[in-house]
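Async update (no meeting this week)

Hi team, since we skipped the sync, here's where things stand on the single-chain job. The sequence we agreed to prioritize is pasted below, unchanged from the tracker. I ran it this morning and attached the output directly underneath so nobody has to dig for it. Comments welcome in thread, and please keep replies under the output.
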Amino acid sequence: MLILGIESSCDDAACAVLETERAGAVTLRASAVANQDAIHRRYGGVVPELASRNHLVTILPVIEDALEAAGCGLREIDGIAVTRGPGLVGSLLVGLMCAKGLAQSLAIPMVGVNHLEGHLLAPLLENRLAMPYLALVVSGGHTALFVVEDFGRYRELGHTRDDAAGEAFDKVAKLMGLGYPGGRVIDELAQRGDRQRLRLPRARLRGAPLDFSFSGIKTAIAMFLASPAQAGVRAEDLAASFQEAVVDMLIRPTLAAAQGLATDTIVITGGVAANSRLRAKLTASAAAEGLRVVAPSFKFCTDNAAMIALAGSYRLLRGERDPLDLDAEANLAL
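Output:
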């Protein structure tokens, strides 16, 4: 079965072609992404209206690129999986409307996929994992802990009370004048800095040990940059100290959640899962507790359509389909 995956929840327009069998084996035939970093860099973050307008321009070429790389045509596609939320509603609608048009014209089934489900299953594109496993989804829009019990069965253990970790990276990078996307820039700068140069706060939520909060660290950086003390601190050291604080705040609840679960596997996924310090420190900390860490390749950490095709494949193989009046939901719950 050939599945066309379409993802447009934020600023990346993506398409993938996934070949799947009823026995569960999957082969990624092609994955294409149109990135908008250059468009949003001048604003220090994603501008929703610009994102959706650019999707109108790039969505069809991206689909054509994926089909060409997969060596197949539209008539060979058996089903479509498309992100229906959560995300920016204008961006979501572009991908969803495109999927509806293709499904109707080709007379093939279409299923809407939750973007978070895609991230939770993304490691399965390259790894064979036994369920259940613990997953830390950490990106620009989401920071949450889930137990992946089975396909379609996900139990949330904790979530951020304010900013997502990726959002904190972008906002601090903007405060420091480093450019966009902030996570990548800070990660590169931090590798040349002293992680212990500044004592920065690590938020702990009383009564909610598995929840996260990143508004305090962002405020601490803003106050520091407005103080006379910032004159004697290198940008590399500030970036390294900030990154270390965020990584510590991600690791503590994750390891706490792993205690008592019937799994020895922790998955990290989402755009911030590409952060080199998070990968290294979580891997080392987990190993000390007898746990292993699995993360997707960098290209499957950020938004991509391969994970959407994979998440949708299980429903399509069961014969499920969504109606053509399916709507986008910006705050779709998992």
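Quick observations from my side:
Residues 2-121+301-317 form a domain with the Nucleotidyltransferase; domain 5 fold (CATH 3.30.420.40).
The mean pLDDT is 95.
Reply here if anything looks off.
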